[in-house]
Specification:
This protein is α/β, with parallel strands linked by helices and about 230 residues long. About 40% of the residues lie in helices and about 15% in strands. It has one domain: 3-Layer(aba) Sandwich (Rossmann fold). Helix 2 links the parallel strand 2 and strand 3. The protein is globular and about 55 Å long. About 40% of the residues are buried.
Length: about 230
């Protein structure tokens, strides 16, 4: 069994209404504070992690640092960066406003809003590209953790805290739970929230969705089915 604690980064500094995928935005002060509170929330539920894995984008790394400070300030913890956990790439659309893109290339933007599962922006990724990228990391991690557990015989080897992005968390839901892309994209994934997936030999289980430090786990957001546009950042 492997339990993944998938943390979305805190609020980041970027202009509203823009395509923020691989654009390397920093956290806001409020984003750092929210990540620290989430660290304390997780510390009551997870043993001190020797490693936290994060997307290599600045907003994810800064969230991981704040998370560790808020949850396990006295424990040594290494933050490992992995580019496969990045948000979806908007390619040539990166850091440009939707309004501007709609004026310049309305046909391509309109097609993307209809076919985002398989259609990519110029030089960017489709949602299926993102699922393959994030899913490849998950499969590799699961295999390595399973092998380590056989050697170490400890449950802690099965817990992984991972800091990433709204799109990549939804890609993980689609990959692990075999959800249709529209269902995965419809899930609310707030800043500084944690979604927990348990990978077992018989399949994957959703153990928590969009939990925040301000929300009791017993009142975690219910699953919502439907359609949803990509978030920004």
């Amino acid at each position: 069994m492997v339990r993944l604690y998938l943390v979305r980064h805190g609020a980041s500094e970027h202009p509203p209404g823009h395509c923020i995928g691989h654009t390397d935005a920093a956290l806001t002060p409020a984003g750092r504070d929210a990540a620290a509170r989430l660290g304390a929330f997780l510390a009551a539920r997870v043993a001190p992690p020797p490693v936290v894995v994060a997307s290599d984008l600045r907003r994810a790394v800064e969230t991981a640092e704040s998370l560790v400070r808020g949850g396990w300030p006295e424990r040594p913890c290494t933050i490992v960066r992995d580019a496969r956990l990045r948000e979806i790439s908007f390619g040539a659309w990166e850091n440009r406003s939707w309004d501007e893109l709609g004026r310049e290339d309305p046909a391509r933007v309109e097609r993307w809003t209809r076919e985002w599962v398989t259609f990519a922006p110029p030089e960017g990724e489709s949602f299926l590209d993102l699922v393959r990228r994030v899913g490849g990391w998950i499969d590799e991690m699961r295999d390595s953790v399973t092998a380590a557990t056989r050697v170490l015989g400890t449950a802690q080897a099965n817990a992984r805290i991972v800091v990433l992005h709204a799109g990549s968390i939804r890609a993980a839901l689609a990959h692990c739970l075999a959800w249709p892309p529209a269902d995965a994209m419809a899930q609310p994934i707030d800043y500084a929230s944690v979604t927990t997936i348990e990978l077992t030999p018989r399949g994957a289980l959703l153990r928590g969705l969009n939990e925040r430090a301000e929300t009791d786990a017993a009142n975690a957001t219910a699953l919502v089915r439907g359609t949803c546009r990509f978030g920004t950042a």
